[in-house]
Amino acid sequence: MSLEQLIENCKINDTKAQSELYKLFSSKLFSVCLKYSRNYAEAEDNLQDAFLTIFKKIEQYKNKGSFEGWLKRVTVNTVLQQYRNEKVFEIVNENIIDDVELDVDDESLSIDYLLKIIQELPDRYRLVFNLYVLDGYSHKDIADMLDINIGTSKSNLARARQILKQTIETDKTNQRVQSL
């Protein structure tokens, strides 16, 4: 069955088609969920919520543009909505700090290690960091997505980079990096 037919069948709530779509895209969308979640278990929950939203909103996909891109946007928005509901982005009075350069080209830093320390960031820093650095959104886009102002987005990114840099430096000193 073609992807177009699979999508059409999902639009009429065909459970076999929904199952097939899940099998086809769940691993890619799980990696998106993992990037934005606090841990593995939360990522699993977010994936299930994302697919519920996908099946509810699949009528909105009009076969224009990348279907996979649409799935990723729905998934990211579903996860971000959870954080908006938890009021992760309540106004916190923070001093704007200078942007910190974060050098992650060091070969001793594994992807698993980087993912782990990114997941350890406080929610508002992790979400902005992932949206800006890993997914390439602008501060304006992030501000719109998270219902925050642009200055808050920039401040949260700078703070995330500062925390990651400190964590890497501390872990290198403590040799944690080599053990991961």
TrEMBL record:
It comes from the Bacteria. InterPro entries: RNA_pol_sigma-70-like, RNA_pol_sigma-70_dom, RNA_pol_sigma70_r2, RNA_pol_sigma70_r4_t2, RNA_pol_sigma_r2, RNA_pol_sigma_r3/r4-like, WH-like_DNA-bd_sf. Residues 112-162 form the RNA polymerase sigma factor 70 region 4 type domain. Transmembrane segments: none annotated. Keywords: Sigma factor, Transcription, Transcription regulation. Pfam families: Sigma70_r2, Sigma70_r4_2. Residues 21-87 form the RNA polymerase sigma-70 region domain. PANTHER family: RNA POLYMERASE ECF-TYPE SIGMA FACTO, RNA POLYMERASE SIGMA-70 FACTOR ECF SUBFAMILY. Belongs to the sigma-70 factor family. ECF subfamily. This is RNA polymerase sigma factor. It comes from Mariniflexile jejuense.
